């Protein structure tokens, strides 16, 4: 609808329902008068709900390394498998959650997916108080934590429709990047919650071999409180946009485009590395540097990676080329990955940790810049939204694959080095893909 027609149809004082019915973010007059305020309200609440989802999705990683010291008896393979399960379920769930906003609306889908988080965190809070709880019981409940990771695709598929193309990079970067801070937030708060005696509210703690006491259930029960509060915020400040309906034909159309799969590969190298290393880092440090007290520093890597993600999207918007930002970041990521391996092999924790922080930094830039590429590769906003959700789903398998690769390397070779050889090779291939299809002069793409 032409700009003047939209504004005339709305009048001077339209209701929120009328504004949503005539949603036209590319219309500058509409955007400044009505769209920006509503879009930013949805972005703020969506981002907080996503922070909460990442808190719950990564919650198990902060507990897994403490299980055996608290009276449980699981093997390394079992611990790494449990650490990987949320990633497997979350990634698979994203394949379906991508389509929820189009089916039931953004507000409704955010409300329902957030409410579902209460089941696994309350359930785990209960069984963590019993050291005789079976591995199978943990397998089921930890799997359910994975649904928190699926929320990302629904959130990203929804929030992109609120913003004009010129602002999508920053908006998606904020939603995803600040949302990713949930990983850092759980790593920061978990050590405090583990040592906080809230037995009068959440139940008695677990006695350690050294005579100390920790409260594993606190990490679960505590986060049920902000989850309930968030449900109220979603219902009050978010909206259901009249999104285009997704026919099976239109959904399947993205799979025949090679760029769908290329962007899946690139984004997996960024986000898959970010969430996979976040899930496995605590266990990796406990295996390679058992003498290091790492609990209070574990949040730094995820904090940096999530914090710079909006900057990656902004920088890509600024220079009008996300593929260049992605390529430079990938080269630095490759060097950082090699340095991490060298730190492990020479048992230099300072080098290992510094390189890991740099590795997390580069994942943030890759994540922000590569997501900005998608709307420019897929000009149709509907297809762009579908591809955004689908790539997010595929990349999330990194949260499953990296811990499993680490567990495989330890069980097969008694060393994590083979796992890093695989990850280094994957990064090299990603560099080639980004350069060949999007950066080189003959690529025919500007994204």
Compute the number of helices: 22
Whole-number average pLDDT? 89
How many beta strands in the DSSP annotation?
2
Strand order of the largest sheet: 1-2
CATH domain topology: Growth Hormone, Chain: A
CATH top level is Mainly Alpha
Largest sheet: 2 strands, antiparallel
Strand content: under 5%
Task: Kindly report the name of the CATH homologous superfamily.
Answer: MFS general substrate transporter like domains
SS-derived structural category: mainly alpha
Helicity level:
over 70%
Q: Mind telling me the C-alpha Rg?
A: 22 Å
CATH architecture: Up-down Bundle
Structure write-up:
The structure is a single chain. The chain has 447 residues and is mainly α. It has a single domain (14-239, 246-443), classed as MFS general substrate transporter like domains (Growth Hormone, Chain: A). Helix content is 76%, strand content 1%. It is built from 22 helices and 2 strands. It has helices at 3-10, 16-21, 28-64, 76-97, 100-104, 106-115, 118-127, 135-145, 147-159, 165-195, 199-202, 216-222, 224-237, 248-252, 258-288, 300-307, 309-319, 322-345, 349-377, 381-395, 398-413, 417-439, and strands spanning 206-207, 213-214. Strands 1-2 form a two-stranded antiparallel ribbon. α3 (28-64) runs parallel beside α15 and α17 (309-319) packs across α19. The chain is globular. The mean pLDDT is 89.
């Amino acid at each position: 609808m032409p700009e003047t027609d939209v504004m005339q149809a709305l009048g001077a004082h339209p209701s929120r329902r009328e504004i949503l019915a005539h949603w036209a973010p590319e219309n500058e007059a509409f955007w400044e008068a009505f769209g920006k305020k509503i879009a930013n309200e949805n972005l703020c609440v969506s981002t907080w709900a996503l922070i909460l989802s990442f808190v719950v999705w990564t919650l198990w990683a902060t507990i897994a390394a403490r299980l055996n010291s608290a009276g449980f008896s699981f093997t390394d393979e079992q611990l790494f498998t449990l650490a990987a399960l949320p990633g497997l379920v979350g990634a698979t769930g994203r394949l379906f959650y991508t389509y929820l906003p189009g089916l039931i609306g953004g507000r409704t889908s955010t409300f329902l997916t957030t409410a579902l988080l209460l089941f696994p965190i309350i359930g785990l809070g209960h069984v963590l108080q019993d050291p005789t709880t079976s591995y199978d019981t943990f397998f089921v409940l930890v799997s359910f934590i994975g649904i928190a990771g699926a929320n990302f695709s629904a959130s990203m598929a929804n929030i992109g429709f609120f913003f004009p193309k010129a602002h999508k990079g920053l908006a998606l970067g904020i939603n995803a990047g600040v949302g990713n801070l949930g990983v850092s937030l759980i790593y920061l708060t978990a050590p405090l919650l583990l040592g906080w005696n809230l037995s009068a509210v959440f139940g008695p703690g677990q006695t350690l071999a050294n005579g100390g006491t920790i409260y594993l259930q606190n990490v679960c029960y505590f986060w049920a409180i902000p989850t309930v509060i968030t449900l109220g915020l979603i219902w009050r400040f978010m909206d259901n946009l009249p999104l285009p309906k997704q026919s099976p034909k239109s959904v399947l159309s993205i799979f025949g485009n090679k760029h769908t799969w290329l962007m899946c590969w690139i984004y997996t190298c960024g986000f898959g590395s970010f969430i996979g290393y976040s899930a496995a880092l605590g266990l990796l440090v406990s295996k390679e540097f058992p003498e290091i007290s790492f609990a209070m520093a574990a949040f730094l890597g995820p904090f940096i990676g999530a914090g710079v993600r909006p900057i990656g999207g902004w920088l890509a918007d600024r220079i009008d080329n996300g593929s260049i930002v992605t390529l430079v970041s990938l080269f630095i990521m490759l060097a950082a990955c090699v340095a991490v391996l060298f730190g492990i092999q020479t048992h230099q924790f300072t080098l290992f940790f510094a390189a890991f922080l740099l590795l997390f930094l580069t994942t943030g830039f890759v994540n922000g810049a590569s997501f900005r590429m998608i709307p420019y590769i897929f000009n149709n906003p509907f297809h762009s939204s579908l591809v955004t959700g689908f790539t997010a789903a595929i990349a999330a398998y990194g949260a499953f694959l990296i811990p499993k690769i680490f567990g495989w390397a330890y069980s097969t070779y008694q060393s994590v080095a083979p796992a890093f050889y695989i990850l280094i090779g994957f990064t090299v291939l990603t560099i080639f893909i980004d350069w060949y299809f999007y950066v080189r002069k003959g690529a025919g793409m500007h994204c």
